[in-house]
Amino acid sequence: MAANGNGRVSTTNGDTGRNGLAKIQTQKSANGVCHDDSTTPVKAQTIDELHSLQKKKSAPTTPINPMQGSFAAVSEDERRKQQLQSISASLASLTRETGPKVVRGDPARPTSEPARVVAHHVSPTITASDSALKFTHVLYNLSPAELYEQAIKYEKGSFITSSGALATLSGAKTGRSPKDKRVVRDETTEDDLWWGKGSPNIEMDEHTFLVNRERAVDYLNSLDKVFVNDQFLNWDPENRIKVRIVSARAYHSLFMHNMCIRPTPQELENFGTPDFTIYNAGQFPCNRYTHYMTSSTSIDLNLARREMVILGTQYAGEMKKGLFSVMHYLMPKRQILSLHSGCNMGKDGDVALFFGLSGTGKTTLSTDHNRYLIGDDEHCWSDNGVSNIEGGCYAKCIDLSREKEPDIWNAIKFGTVLENVVFDEHTREVDYSDKSVTENTRAAYPIEYIPNAKIPCVASHPKNVILLACDAFGVLPPVSKLTLAQTMYHFISGYTALVAGTEEGIKEPQATFSACFGAAFIMLHPTKYAAMLAAKMQNHGATGWLVNTGWSGGSYGSGSRIKLAYTRKIIDAIHSGSLLKANYKKTEVFGFEIPTEVEGVPLEILEPSNTWSDKKAYNETLLKLAGLFKNNFEGFVAHKIGKDDKLTDEILAAGPIF
């Protein structure tokens, strides 16, 4: 007889069952100790009921303070109803004058809550459509975990990587489509916006916008479910903008969850009507026969309606940069300067802005372990100081390594979106050097994932304005102190240099000029932003600097890249104020003030001509670059910069003289 738990088991001798096996007899021990691991049965009577017990209701949100406006003094049920009515109104067809019947929740998952169906009707209408007869399920401000579930379950190409980040694909488009971006030209924008040669603003009319809007809304309403994000732009509470993003993919919803400022539960309850709405129907093409369309892709901004429509591209960066363009229009109307820049703050409160095009080191230099990160890409400068526009970072991932970029590497974890990366099919480890899908691989993560980020992302007025240029011609000094006029000249110019591809057999660098270091996103004429920057620098005593992170001792191919360690020493000297007290001498042609010494930086590289063995080649290259600057600035000489005629004349005279 064998002991088993609190009883005994034995087999009988000779007594067999129908199957020929000996019968088993059990006997309970009189004083046996119970080792039974059973417990009280669950309360659920069905498997569905058991599943409903797995997830508890969210705890009551933050205490509701007395509210103002349409959401004041209403019940939770009524607030939900108003919220759905607002979403239905956003998705309303302008021709049928009705919104869809919207209900919260995933259509694939039964809910114990009674469905609240809400539809928006502007006026009685006799028109009807199939979409008006169906429900549109709204997945509203889902958490990252919920969005992971949606992406993994329903979106092909979505995978969880070994670090916990969500790998996604953006479809055929792996970058922005600037030639397909349109802005409605009407009485609102006719005189305000920058139109014509050099402008990024390609016009369309109101009717064409409405055709594309209707196409996007019809597509979104035809789906079983849509994702809706209600979020904010601008960390300055006095000047923040409420944005609503309606999209068809969990990838897009999670991307914007990370990139915009995430509302608290109480802020969400009192969100109300958004200031701006994005309709992202990127999986559906535009009609190429529609006027102003040049491809199946169209990104359309209507500033009067405060709406943006995306058709024919799933690249998430279109939403981010579209909203940045909107801020470049809305903020200057409030006398707030919108900037394409990085920003950090020292432990003593000193603030620095970093301007620079791709490849100049803007993100690398603004991310400093000894300083607080305010933001890496988009900022506003108001009377209150500097504030980050976004709630996240959108970092390049190509050739990313833990050693070179530890903060970005460590930020790629659960909640982060990884765009178009390649990973091992078994281990799910990402190969950041693999360009099989695109070279433009990206990571989008909340700014809180950076350890030294300052939350909230606001700071006082900048002490230093640093313009970064990767000069592949090798003739600009590693650092120059600029006058106010020189700062404006080089801000408007927005210079860097790119090295041509070897497949074209071209060895010489190519100069690139992008006004305000972000011409693709600005809405007003560059001189208007320059006038605002000049006024703010004057009012708050900021100093301008030009830092060359490019070549020394020759152009690309003969010289060498200035060491990052030297550039960091220069930036440290700017932050500490020691460089402001240094001795300076003036260069020829560009008229830069360059320091005679910087601690930790070799003296010979501070003067570019000292590093060239061929002085004739140096002078020829210097004059060549000066000519490129002069030719580029020809487009701005007819424009007055602000109301100060003297400053305008000084800026025009601040360019190279030869």
TrEMBL record:
Keywords: ATP-binding, Cytoplasm, Decarboxylase, Gluconeogenesis, Lyase, Nucleotide-binding. Its EC number is 4.1.1.49. SUPFAM superfamilies: PEP carboxykinase N-terminal domain, PEP carboxykinase-like. Residues 7-16, 59-68 have a biased composition (Polar residues). Residues 1-68, 90-116 are annotated as: Disordered. One of its GO terms (cellular component) is cytosol. One of its GO terms (biological process) is gluconeogenesis. PROSITE patterns: PEPCK_ATP. GO terms for molecular function: ATP binding; phosphoenolpyruvate carboxykinase (ATP) activity. Belongs to the phosphoenolpyruvate carboxykinase (ATP) family. This is phosphoenolpyruvate carboxykinase (ATP). It comes from Sesamum radiatum.
